[in-house]
Specification:
By secondary structure, the protein is mainly beta. The chain is built from 3 helices and 16 strands.
């Protein structure tokens, strides 16, 4: 919940599970506790649905709540971006990468760019959960069959429209501490998470502001406006 709040995720559904193991009063108490814990965060006001998978109670309501939350289109007029979370090779097809499209659209035969390598690749095929499709849009869970990569792709690489992103080892960031965390030290060793990438980083505060310079050993293709998570290395 703290990470979702820091990322500014303001749409979602909260499921209270296994209500078959609790009486009505206990379930109501759990809902009140959730409302108290999410107050003042981006999760405040999310639908809270009591459910039980073994009995089926609440599952219809849960599906309806999820459908209502998802009934908001993702921006498709922005450049294509997809953080890779998995990469593998299929015999006869070649390299396949999976991820969730952040923005934009992608279609078969289009040319894309991989960061940080800078390789240009061509889309040979697209799938949604095993079903062949000709294109995919922002918010979609997608597998893309590609050709042309000179190096093995891995989790944390960014697939983008050509010329729309550049990898770097220095990032200017503004940090906001989680509600359960005290003051952020002026400098130190941390892990920086952006998209599906995780990078060791040295942070240094700029003056007395909430702005920091993050110095990374390995480059990452962060862009202006990206939300990130920084956690202490310990």
């Amino acid at each position: 919940a703290a990470v979702l709040d820091l990322l500014g995720v303001d749409r979602g559904v909260i499921a209270v599970t296994r209500i078959d193991l609790a009486d009505g009063d206990t379930t109501e108490l759990a809902i009140l506790e959730i409302e108290e814990q999410t107050e003042g965060t981006s999760l405040e006001g999310w639908p809270i649905i009591p459910v039980s998978a073994p009995t089926g109670a609440g599952l219809t309501e849960l599906a309806q709540a999820i459908e209502a939350v998802l009934d908001t289109p993702n921006p498709s007029d922005l450049p294509f971006r997809m953080w890779i979370d998995r990469s593998f090779t299929i015999a006869g097809a070649g390299q396949v990468v999976t991820g969730t499209i952040t923005s934009g659209t992608v279609a078969v035969s289009e040319e894309l760019e991989i960061q940080p390598s800078g390789d240009r690749v061509r889309v040979r095929g697209i799938q949604h959960h095993g079903r062949e499709v000709s294109s995919s849009v922002g918010g979609s869970r997608t597998a893309i069959n590609i050709s042309g990569a000179s190096t093995a792709l891995e989790r944390g690489d960014l697939m983008v429209a050509p010329g729309t992103a550049l990898a770097t080892t220095r990032v200017l960031i503004e940090l906001q501490p989680a509600r359960s965390v005290g003051a952020i030290p002026d400098r130190g060793a941390f892990h920086l998470h952006v998209g599906t990438a995780s990078r060791p980083a040295q942070l240094r505060r700029l003056g007395t502001s909430s702005a920091f310079i993050a110095r990374l050993v390995d480059p990452v293709a962060a862009t202006i406006g990206d939300r990130i998570i920084v956690r202490d290395s310990g």
